[in-house]
Design a protein that fits this description.
Length: about 425
């Protein structure tokens, strides 16, 4: 069987589905929702306005948020009108975590992060045409409201008993940390957002992660009480690996969408390492590949898993979606060259440097011997082991086999770096200064 094309898939819906609801269900994006029959009819009819919120509790969005961004885009491709909400007010509080109270960031920090997140959300939506996206900030309607107005106009519609049953609140109440009134009130603020967007834009659908379900239905319940009408919510599944581990975490570091916080090379390698058990589900959620294309990759995973064709396509697609085709092409070239399928000397200096930062690495002076560099980078444990590896022909520097143990490092690759290899797959980076 031939490998399907590695060109980037067009950002489009799969025409083999009757409507967008059927497609997002097939992609596994509906974990919990309000009435599914009503939702299917709603999304199959005239354009509606819908929203998803992103709180600035960090300077960048991450892969969990990418699920929501792509869901927003799929619904927009079906003709519906997205609202991307960045929470300038809710970000000052933060939704309750199951374990402990959040550290409150300063208003100045939150305002800076609002701007950064708005710029990220903008990249995933279209702002042209009849269903152009809008970006909104909930600080615009929260800041002018006094505490008395908030309690009288919004708070009176909430029952404490119901609020206590929300999963995050219940978890905190049963923990040693407890929960502050500040975080306890978060679900009211999110409910008010949905009400405000319903009033301003006739917004009738909210999407979010299933762990936010209590907050999602806080808004739909509030609208029903205040306006006497029914609106909808969709909770997408939390993405976990097949072995039950958290998705998108690596030694405590999230895979951020900001290239300065997570390089395109690191993101590409993250997706490349996806297991066979997870890769087809990842293709459904994180790419615009069609059902037929994904079925082709399913066959390849079954018949030729060693080729890792599905993982390569996944890495290419997501990296291009997040960082653009040019950055992705540079990353692919770097990945290929580092593993012996390209010319290291032709790589872009910045991409090569960020790639080497993801490898074991060391900073050395020009003229350092390869023996010393092998030890410095941890590729060997001693100078004698380094000499033995060189004598056996198992060491290369910048793609050339090292012939003897007097060879030195000069940083001859773009950007004044070098690549040290022991064996076929063990690499290290050298920053020569």
């Amino acid at each position: 069987m031939s490998t399907p094309s590695l060109t980037t898939a067009p950002v489009a819906l799969d025409p083999t589905f009757e409507n967008v609801w059927d497609e997002i269900v097939w992609r596994g994006l509906v974990h919990v929702s309000t009435d599914q029959a009503a939702l299917r009819a709603l999304l199959s009819g005239d354009p509606i306005t819908y929203y998803c919120g992103f709180d600035p509790t960090a300077p960048s969005l991450h892969l969990g948020n990418l699920v929501q961004l792509l869901t927003l885009r799929r619904l927009q491709l079906a003709g519906h009108k997205p609202l991307g909400l960045v929470g300038g007010s809710t970000g000052l509080i933060g939704d309750p975590r199951p374990t402990a109270e959040r550290t409150l960031n300063t208003p100045e920090t939150v305002a800076e992060w609002v701007d950064r997140l708005r710029a990220q959300v903008e990249r995933f939506l279209s702002f042209d045409g009849d269903n152009a996206a809008r970006l909104v900030n909930n600080l615009d309607w929260t800041a002018p409201m006094s505490a008395i107005e908030f309690l009288r106009e919004i708070g009176k519609h909430y029952r404490v008993g119901t609020m206590l049953k929300k999963d995050a609140v219940a978890a905190r109440l049963n923990s040693d940390a407890g929960i502050s009134y500040t975080e306890f009130s978060y679900q009211i603020l999110q409910g008010m957002d949905f009400l405000e967007l319903y009033r301003q834009y006739d917004c009738v659908l909210q999407t979010g992660g299933s762990d936010q379900w209590g907050n999602l239905i806080s808004g739909s319940d509030l609208i029903h009480k205040v306006e006497g009408t029914s609106v909808h919510a969709i909770g997408t599944p939390l993405i976990t690996n097949s072995d039950g581990t958290k998705f998108g975490k690596s030694e405590g570091n999230a895979i951020w969408l900001d290239a300065e916080m997570c390089s395109p090379y690191r993101m590409f390698q993250f997706w490349l390492s996806t297991t066979d058990a997870d890769v087809l589900d990842r293709l459904k959620v994180f790419t615009f590949l069609t059902r037929a294309e994904i079925e082709e990759y399913a066959a390849l995973v079954e018949s030729e898993p060693f080729r890792r064709a599905a993982q390569k396509r996944l890495a290419r697609e997501v990296c291009a979606t997040v960082h653009g085709p040019e950055a992705t092409a540079a990353v692919v070239a770097a990945s290929d060259a580092l593993f012996g399928q390209g010319d290291l000397a032709e790589l872009d200096a910045a991409t090569l440097r960020t790639a080497l930062e993801e490898l074991p690495n060391a900073t050395v002076a020009a003229g350092t011997t390869v023996v010393e560099a092998l030890v410095e980078t941890g590729l060997v444990s001693s100078a004698s082991e380094a000499r033995r590896a060189i004598s056996q022909g198992g060491v290369s520097l910048d793609g050339e086999r090292v012939a003897d143990d007097t060879a030195v490092v000069q940083g001859g690759l773009p950007g004044g770096v070098s690549v040290l290899r022991r064996g076929k797959k063990t690499l290290a980076g050298l920053f020569v200064g």
